[in-house]
Amino acid sequence: MIVELKDTTTSAIAKRLIAVREEGGAVALGRVLTLVIAVEHADHEAVIEAANEASGEHPMRILVVHAHDPESEVARLDAEIRVGGDAGASDVVVLDVWGPAGADPETLVNALLLPDAPVIVWWPNKVVDSPSTSPLGSIAQLRITDTPRTTRGPEVMGRIIDGYRPGDVDLAWTRLTLWRTQLAAVLDREPFEPVSSARVAGIRDSTSTLLMAAWLRLTLGVPVEIEAIEPEVVVGNGSLSAVELRRTSGSVVLERITPSTVRLLQPGEPEQHITIRARTLPEVLAEELRSLAPDRVLGAVLGRGLPALLEELAA
């Protein structure tokens, strides 16, 4: 069910949302969080769809805030309420705001937040200099950004480092989870030799590539070389092509060969093919929603590993 409200107020939206759910015989029980999505473009159906899919694992209320023409002197608020089949396991409220109506987004969404439930804010495809001090980020336990697949990596990472506070996360880091898990598993097996250096092959200016190199540098305490790969050469929708760990007995290489498969090469062992899919946006979003605790590893990477790596790259 979809209900449209034109030139309305948040109080009217909250009342209509309750009425719509009661009319449909549904209640808001079981919603575990509120996800606020701050979008800048009218084409935001893809992020709503991703949140709806993630709601299958995390039933939630989704508030989409789309600010139009903030310089306008005319204040206006339109809303679209989606429940039932149009909203997955969630309520969806799309707020289109113009002019002064969008000047205070915290107040705008407050009346629509689920009571006594965590608040997560997500900025798709946007770098936010200081998420925790932004109007929406200040009310959130978890603040999610998603830097693009190719971007001005060192510049963007510098801004993320400067504004980082526990509870901030970027989906470029989340996309590395399966790679990091597999590399850790390899090093937990014989031979237990130290790694002397490492190589990361990927899109050079991708934040995922930089984060992987910084994590290896911090975790292993060794030099890490970044091999630049052109975006069109990288298999799948990710940024990484391969990771090599160099040891005395030879190199361990983890290399993506299809969108769903990586090849593991180790000295003295047959080639292995391992299923590591290039995960979708709903999958990485759902992963971040599983725990609202600050990611301490990411905090260490941003606090120590990445600054040292960026300093080396700039030299």
Give a written overview of the molecule.
The protein is an alpha/beta fold and 315 residues long. It contains 9 helices and 14 strands. The chain has 2 domains: 169 residues, no CATH class; 145 residues, Dihydrodipicolinate Reductase, domain 2 (2-Layer Sandwich). The strands form 2 sheets. It has an 8-stranded mixed beta sheet, with helices on both faces. The mean pLDDT is 88.
Number of helices: 9
Helix content: 25-40%
Sheet with most strands: 8 strands, mixed
| Number of structural units classed as domains | 2
Number of strands: 14
- Give Rg in angstroms: 22 Å
- Beta-strand percent range: 25-35%
CA distance, first residue to last residue: 57 Å
* Global outline: elongated
Low-confidence regions: none
What's the order of the H and E elements? EHEHEEEHEEHEHHEHEEEEEHH
* Helix vs. strand class: alpha/beta
Strand order of the main beta sheet, please?
A: 1-4-5-3-2-6-7-8
Rounded average pLDDT? 88
Task: Record keyword descriptors for this entry.
315 residues; single chain; six-stranded mixed sheet; Dihydrodipicolinate Reductase, domain 2; 2 domains; 9 helices; 27% strand; eight-stranded mixed sheet; alpha/beta
What is the strand and helix layout of this fold?
Blueprint: E1 2-5, H1 10-23, E2 33-39, H2 45-54, E3 60-68, E4 76-82, E5 90-98, H3 105-110, E6 119-123, E7 142-145, H4 153-163, E8 168-170, H5 171-174, H6 177-187, E9 197-202, H7 207-220, E10 224-228, E11 240-247, E12 250-258, E13 261-265, E14 272-275, H8 281-289, H9 296-314
Parallel strand pairs: 2-3, 2-6, 3-5, 6-7, 7-8, 9-10
Antiparallel strand pairs: 1-4, 4-5, 9-11, 11-12, 12-13, 13-14
Helix pairs in contact: 2-8, 4-9, 7-9
